[in-house]
Specification:
- This protein is mainly alpha-helical.
- The protein has two domains: about 90 residues, Alpha Horseshoe (Serine Threonine Protein Phosphatase 5, Tetratricopeptide repeat), CATH 1.25.40; about 50 residues, Alpha Horseshoe (Serine Threonine Protein Phosphatase 5, Tetratricopeptide repeat).
- The chain is about 80% helix and about 0% strand.
- The protein has eight helices and no strands.
Length: about 140
């Protein structure tokens, strides 16, 4: 664990890291999440600086952070994290659905509809998305 924390500090401060170092840091943060150490996991993910050419990894990081923030009842932070996730991976259906649910819960039905339509456009076979869209349009 001490080695991983040192690795996180190196990644944060230098911005230079190999794929293996990033994978190790991501695995460490995911392990914290699975153990229910949400605040620690959010901090660990936040410390990981992923190069811009690793778009899917960046999207995964922000998706994971969004889920953590939802569980911590930090909806605004979750919303921002999921927006970054879809920015780096426009095919991230689950992030669109989670953005839609967050917007819906805030009462922003037009944004919720937009996010669910994006998700449905990517996976037209998802009846659950179609049902939620139908509910919004009522």
């Amino acid at each position: 664990m001490v080695a991983v924390l040192a690795l996180l500090r190196i990644i944060k401060h230098t911005g230079n890291s190999s794929y293996e170092q990033i994978a190790t840091a991501m695995s460490y943060a995911e392990g914290l999440f699975k153990k229910g150490k949400l605040e620690e996991a959010a901090y660990a993910f936040d410390q990981i600086k992923i190069p811009s050419y690793m778009l899917k990894r960046k999207a995964q990081k922000f998706h994971n952070m969004g889920i953590i923030y939802v569980k911590l009842s930090c909806e605004d932070k979750a919303y921002l994290a999921f927006e970054k996730a879809v920015h780096y991976d426009p095919d991230n259906i689950e992030a669109y659905c989670l953005l839609g649910r967050l917007a819906y819960e805030k009462g922003d039905f037009s944004k919720a509809q937009k996010y669910f339509e994006n998700a449905l456009g990517l996976r037209p076979d998802r009846d659950d998305i179609r049902d939620f869209l139908h509910q919004i349009k009522k």
